[in-house]
Amino acid sequence: MATVSMTVNGKEVSADVEDRTLLVHYLRENLHLTGTHVGCDTSQCGACVVHVDGKAVKSCTMLAAQAAGSDVTTIEGLANGGDLHPVQAAFKENHGLQCGFCTPGMIMTAVDMINRHGGKNLDEATIRAELEGNLCRCTGYHNIVRSIEAAAKAMG
Amino acid sequence: MGVEGIGARVTRKEDQRFITGKGRYTDDFSVTGMHHAVFVRSPHAHAAIKGIDKSKAEKMPGVVAVLDGQQLTGDGIGNLICGWMIHSKDGSPMNMGAWSALATEKVRYVGDAAAVVIAETPAQAKAAAEAVKVDYGELPAVSDASKALESSAPQLHDNAAGNLIYDWEIGEADEVDKAIAGAAHVTEMEITNNRLVPNAMEPRAALAQYDTAEDHFTLHTTSQNPHVARLVLSAFYQVAPEHKLRVIAPDVGGGFGSKIYIYPEEIVCLWAAKRTGVPVKWTADRMESFLTDAHGRDHVSTAKMAFDKDNRIVGFKVDTIANLGAYMSLFSSCVPTYLYATLLSGQYAIPAIHANVRAVYTNTAPVDAYRGAGRPEACFLIERVMETAARELGVDPAELRRTNFIGEFPHQTPVIMAYDAGDFGATLDAALEAADYAGFAKRKAEAEGRGRKRGIGLSCYIEACGIAPSAAVGSLGAGVGLWESAEVRVNPVGTVEILTGSHSHGQGHETTFAQLVNDRFGLPTDNVQVVHGDTDKVQFGMGTYGSRSGAVGMSAIVKALDKVEAKAKTIAAHLLEADAGDIVIEDGEVKVAGTDKKLGWHEVCLAAYTGHNLPEGMEPGLKEGAFYDPANFTFPAGAYICEVEVDPATGQTEVVQFVAADDFGRIINPMIVEGQVHGGVAQGLGQALMENAVYDDAGQLLSASMMDYTLPRADDLPSFKVSTHETICPNNPLGMKGCGEAGAIGSPPALINAITDAIGNNDLAMPATASRVWAAMNS
After folding, report:
1. In CATH, which of 3.10.20.30, 3.40.50.300, 3.40.720.10, 1.10.1760.20 is domain A2-76?
2. Does the ipTM exceed 0.90?
3. What is the CATH number of domain A86-155?
4. What are phi and psi of B142, to 5 degrees?
5. Which chain A residues are within 8 Å of B743, Cβ to Cβ?
6. What is the pTM of this model?
7. Chain A residues touching B250 at Cβ < 8 A
8. What is the domain extent for residue B417?
9. Can you tell me the mean pLDDT for B79-95?
10. What percent helix, strand, coil does chain A show, rounded to 5?
């Protein structure tokens, strides 16, 4: 067991966890932040994507201990109070989600994607290539792409 | 059409919680004292259980119990059942083998559970499960359905000689044989429909609680139909009587059929919760999902289609072997029969059809309905054969289809179905135009200049939805009625709650169902709450599958709204001293037509609840329920056109254009309908291009992870061009047909037709992987 401390969604948190605890389980089970999902066991689906120090990370591929001292943002921490993040708003506006299970990971990936490329430089082919690590079984990706295009435009 | 009424593109009410991480899926629930279940699963496809040594596992940290099948059956828990009786053509009933939720004497597929460990943490349960020593006596296994029928094949169930579950037929064999004998042309094909793993993104999960004081169970589960789950858990598995069992299906992360069925894990968790005295949660890991979620498809067929000299179809003969896996899942028997062979007429006037279907046990995961369920298999046969026939006959594939389209409705096919409405020419025309079919030759030449082989393929599908008229399906063997129920509760302040037996796991019911209230009374959809997925709140329902929530579920809501409207008008007429026939409700107001007399909707609602001034003899309150039993199936139909480019060096296929023109009847929310088509097409293209559940001869699933089973990713697919063209369904009050499965039904043949067109070789099986395409190109 080890005490692992980090900042999650702007709050200092700390928990005693087994050394082998993955970041996703730390978030879900210790902090009860269940918006981050587990969809597979091989780091293929991307439902668990969060931001660690500003970068999109599959939280199932990282030990909680590796994130010690980091600044972590989950889907629960993305909106600014009652104001949705532009990517969240775009997913709603463009029907970029159906069952909602992959959605937190998709949104966190999309935010990182737009931050890295800049809103003006994201074309459809780039968006599709960048979504390589996120699976969705409902939307056929069509409206996820539309959502990210719209968000990129809004974020300029 | 109002801003939020029928036909409006209303953004979804449910999205707020999903985009902010506030969705509540089964695995998100935790309760005090909760323990975790991990199953001990067979690594062998077929083996006798000679003994189970639990001694080491039982002593491990956190373990409260290690339970096996003998204890389960000893406590009176019943076997899993298939709820649809199919009779073979000799009149004998299907051969349903015993399926215990924990295996007792034999395991019959890799993943079959032999025991379960209940421990304080998932890690402890997992470690202990690995310490349970099951003494397996390995037996020969068979995974291929055709081989399972051979006399030398290992036998799975004592009561199914030759592994044959049933040998069933539909249609008139003599007439078809006669038509084939006298035909000007016969197209004959052998066609495999590959086995698929549904892969809803949320793995299955269950949380079972037992209240000793009340002798009452609560089950949170990933279900598309919680009421059917409760019924079956009570009536057949004897877990608990219905009034002592609450089943909650909260937010569910996709289903596609795989969450219709009641699986062993729910049964075991409920039983274990009572037996151990602790709440028990189980969440599948993805490999368990691959091994144990009901798979889809897996047909091998031969098809003969006969044409006269004018290229009109005169007969269609089909012989199919359907692999149902190791046990008969809940609805497995109806998929390769009444959901398949009854659709073999496609969009075409075919005077004679005959199909023979043999369903077979193999040492593989149970197979049941997966998005489309039988109808994709039928569509793939018909549309591959039509395209092939066009090539053989030297006619345009679009024109061959047009020549044979059914043009008048109602149309009785030779295989039970009576199509009620449609305009197949209209959807084909729309698709041809959207795809610029006329310009294809130019695009092909241009691609050739770039060293790429370009091909185009068509598919004109029809399916049967609106499942289903209860009396009709009862006569065909269904163990349940397939109506739907709804209750509309109007609160004293005028807000509305819709309680529905339909279940939303991505379909957006909370929005579309609220649109019905807006359309009827002019109330904002924000004033409407849709309640579903809880047997304590909703009295009964048959759930969501077979694209039934619109045509059946919403029809029940319409019936209940009719009653609410009638009562509200009677109250308003009394208060306004007018005739109820003169009352109109619109924009949230209740008015006397042609006058300025009116009340606010909320005033009428409040009057219903105060009861101070109601018509003589009227009961207070404003709450009505309805059951809707459909008069007929509905028949969504459409035309899909796929265009591909193949890299001749590698065989890699790129889908460069996909056009869908669908007729779903009346549409409530076009945004949601388009989303359903996108998702369905993606799954269909996934089947045709890359997805394949592969068992080796020993019954090991070789594609048991997302690293081995290729799900379509964003860069595998194009954006889709979709459009809809309504003919109104005459058999339900909204005129709806259903849209959930069409994409998965219509798209696979369009893609394979396109690739085979591109490479000039028609011999290509799904999935059309690069290696298969390259081999076909170079054979």
Report:
1. 3.10.20.30
2. yes
3. 1.10.150.120
4. -140, 135
5. 140
6. 0.97
7. none
8. 299-468+632-777
9. 97
10. 40, 20, 40
